[in-house]
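Record type: monomer structure entry
Structure origin: computed from sequence
Chain ID: A
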Amino acid sequence: MGVRKHLRAEKLKEERKTKYFAKLRNCPTSPRKMRLVADLIRGRNVDEALGILKFTKKEAAGRLEKLLLSAIANWQNKNEGVRLEESNLFIKEIFVDSARMLKRIRPAPQGRAHRIRKRSNHVTLVLDSRKQATVSNEDLVEKVETPKEEKVEATKENTK
Protein backbone atom coordinates (compact mmCIF):
# COMPACT_ATOMS: atom_id res chain seq x y z
CA MET A 1 0.00 0.00 0.00
CA GLY A 2 1.32 3.45 -0.89
CA VAL A 3 1.99 6.12 1.69
CA ARG A 4 -0.97 8.27 0.69
CA LYS A 5 -3.35 5.34 0.79
CA HIS A 6 -1.96 4.26 4.15
CA LEU A 7 -2.40 7.75 5.65
CA ARG A 8 -5.95 7.96 4.32
CA ALA A 9 -6.77 4.53 5.78
CA GLU A 10 -5.41 5.57 9.19
CA LYS A 11 -7.46 8.78 9.09
CA LEU A 12 -10.66 6.86 8.27
CA LYS A 13 -9.88 4.37 11.05
CA GLU A 14 -9.61 7.22 13.58
CA GLU A 15 -12.88 8.75 12.39
CA ARG A 16 -14.72 5.44 12.82
CA LYS A 17 -13.71 5.34 16.49
CA THR A 18 -15.87 8.40 17.21
CA LYS A 19 -18.72 7.45 14.88
CA TYR A 20 -21.57 5.37 16.32
CA PHE A 21 -23.63 3.54 13.74
CA ALA A 22 -25.47 0.37 12.85
CA LYS A 23 -26.34 -1.11 9.47
CA LEU A 24 -29.21 -3.30 8.41
CA ARG A 25 -28.42 -5.16 5.22
CA ASN A 26 -30.69 -6.91 2.70
CA CYS A 27 -33.91 -6.24 4.58
CA PRO A 28 -36.76 -7.74 2.51
CA THR A 29 -38.93 -4.61 2.62
CA SER A 30 -39.43 -2.07 -0.12
CA PRO A 31 -37.14 0.97 0.36
CA ARG A 32 -40.14 3.26 -0.10
CA LYS A 33 -41.97 1.62 2.82
CA MET A 34 -38.85 1.74 5.01
CA ARG A 35 -38.27 5.44 4.25
CA LEU A 36 -41.75 6.28 5.53
CA VAL A 37 -40.78 5.00 8.97
CA ALA A 38 -37.21 6.33 8.81
CA ASP A 39 -38.54 9.86 8.20
CA LEU A 40 -40.52 9.65 11.45
CA ILE A 41 -37.41 9.31 13.62
CA ARG A 42 -34.77 11.33 11.74
CA GLY A 43 -33.21 13.97 14.03
CA ARG A 44 -35.07 12.86 17.17
CA ASN A 45 -33.71 11.93 20.58
CA VAL A 46 -33.09 8.22 21.08
CA ASP A 47 -35.75 7.79 23.79
CA GLU A 48 -38.35 9.63 21.73
CA ALA A 49 -37.49 7.60 18.62
CA LEU A 50 -37.80 4.30 20.51
CA GLY A 51 -41.27 5.36 21.71
CA ILE A 52 -42.36 6.29 18.20
CA LEU A 53 -41.11 3.01 16.74
CA LYS A 54 -42.69 0.94 19.48
CA PHE A 55 -46.17 2.28 18.74
CA THR A 56 -45.94 2.50 14.95
CA LYS A 57 -47.96 -0.29 13.35
CA LYS A 58 -45.81 -0.75 10.24
CA GLU A 59 -43.63 -3.84 9.87
CA ALA A 60 -40.57 -1.69 9.13
CA ALA A 61 -40.88 -0.05 12.56
CA GLY A 62 -39.97 -3.29 14.34
CA ARG A 63 -36.86 -3.70 12.22
CA LEU A 64 -35.78 -0.08 12.75
CA GLU A 65 -36.35 -0.40 16.50
CA LYS A 66 -34.02 -3.38 16.61
CA LEU A 67 -31.47 -1.46 14.51
CA LEU A 68 -31.66 1.55 16.83
CA LEU A 69 -31.10 -0.67 19.88
CA SER A 70 -28.05 -2.12 18.10
CA ALA A 71 -26.65 1.37 17.44
CA ILE A 72 -27.17 2.25 21.13
CA ALA A 73 -25.30 -0.93 22.12
CA ASN A 74 -22.45 0.05 19.77
CA TRP A 75 -22.32 3.47 21.45
CA GLN A 76 -22.18 1.84 24.89
CA ASN A 77 -19.29 -0.43 23.81
CA LYS A 78 -17.24 2.58 22.68
CA ASN A 79 -18.17 4.73 25.74
CA GLU A 80 -18.04 2.40 28.72
CA GLY A 81 -17.73 5.02 31.47
CA VAL A 82 -20.52 7.34 30.27
CA ARG A 83 -24.17 6.96 31.22
CA LEU A 84 -26.70 6.81 28.41
CA GLU A 85 -29.07 9.31 30.07
CA GLU A 86 -26.37 11.99 30.36
CA SER A 87 -25.10 11.63 26.80
CA ASN A 88 -28.21 13.15 25.16
CA LEU A 89 -28.02 10.89 22.09
CA PHE A 90 -29.98 11.66 18.95
CA ILE A 91 -30.29 10.19 15.46
CA LYS A 92 -27.85 12.25 13.43
CA GLU A 93 -28.65 10.59 10.12
CA ILE A 94 -30.62 7.67 8.85
CA PHE A 95 -30.79 6.70 5.23
CA VAL A 96 -32.32 3.88 3.25
CA ASP A 97 -30.69 2.57 0.08
CA SER A 98 -32.10 -0.01 -2.26
CA ALA A 99 -30.45 -3.42 -2.21
CA ARG A 100 -30.74 -6.40 -4.53
CA MET A 101 -33.98 -6.96 -6.36
CA LEU A 102 -35.35 -10.48 -6.79
CA LYS A 103 -37.07 -10.84 -10.13
CA ARG A 104 -39.97 -13.25 -10.38
CA ILE A 105 -42.43 -14.11 -13.14
CA ARG A 106 -46.22 -14.01 -12.75
CA PRO A 107 -48.39 -15.59 -15.45
CA ALA A 108 -50.49 -13.14 -17.42
CA PRO A 109 -53.36 -13.61 -19.89
CA GLN A 110 -52.82 -15.00 -23.39
CA GLY A 111 -49.56 -16.77 -22.60
CA ARG A 112 -47.67 -13.69 -21.57
CA ALA A 113 -45.74 -13.13 -18.30
CA HIS A 114 -45.36 -10.10 -16.09
CA ARG A 115 -42.25 -9.45 -14.06
CA ILE A 116 -42.57 -9.08 -10.28
CA ARG A 117 -39.78 -7.13 -8.58
CA LYS A 118 -39.28 -8.08 -4.93
CA ARG A 119 -37.29 -5.19 -3.53
CA SER A 120 -35.03 -5.09 -0.50
CA ASN A 121 -33.04 -2.34 1.19
CA HIS A 122 -30.03 -1.36 3.30
CA VAL A 123 -30.53 0.99 6.26
CA THR A 124 -27.70 2.95 7.90
CA LEU A 125 -28.34 4.69 11.22
CA VAL A 126 -25.80 7.10 12.78
CA LEU A 127 -26.03 8.39 16.36
CA ASP A 128 -24.43 11.47 17.88
CA SER A 129 -24.64 13.34 21.17
CA ARG A 130 -25.87 16.89 21.48
CA LYS A 131 -23.53 19.23 23.33
CA GLN A 132 -25.54 21.48 25.62
CA ALA A 133 -24.07 24.95 25.79
CA THR A 134 -24.37 26.61 29.18
CA VAL A 135 -25.85 30.09 28.82
CA SER A 136 -26.37 32.29 31.84
CA ASN A 137 -29.67 34.08 32.46
CA GLU A 138 -27.95 37.50 32.40
CA ASP A 139 -26.85 36.96 28.79
CA LEU A 140 -30.42 36.06 27.81
CA VAL A 141 -31.87 39.14 29.54
CA GLU A 142 -29.39 41.47 27.81
CA LYS A 143 -30.15 39.97 24.40
CA VAL A 144 -33.89 40.27 24.92
CA GLU A 145 -33.86 43.85 26.25
CA THR A 146 -31.53 45.33 23.62
CA PRO A 147 -33.88 45.07 20.60
CA LYS A 148 -36.85 46.50 22.53
CA GLU A 149 -34.96 49.66 23.52
CA GLU A 150 -33.80 50.23 19.94
CA LYS A 151 -37.37 49.84 18.64
CA VAL A 152 -38.71 52.34 21.19
CA GLU A 153 -36.05 54.92 20.22
CA ALA A 154 -36.76 54.38 16.53
CA THR A 155 -40.50 54.91 17.01
CA LYS A 156 -39.90 58.13 18.98
CA GLU A 157 -37.75 59.51 16.15
CA ASN A 158 -40.40 58.58 13.57
CA THR A 159 -43.18 60.36 15.47
CA LYS A 160 -41.30 63.71 15.73
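Annotation 1: Confidence is low (pLDDT under 50) at residues 133-137.
Annotation 2: Residues 137-159 form the longest helix (23 residues).
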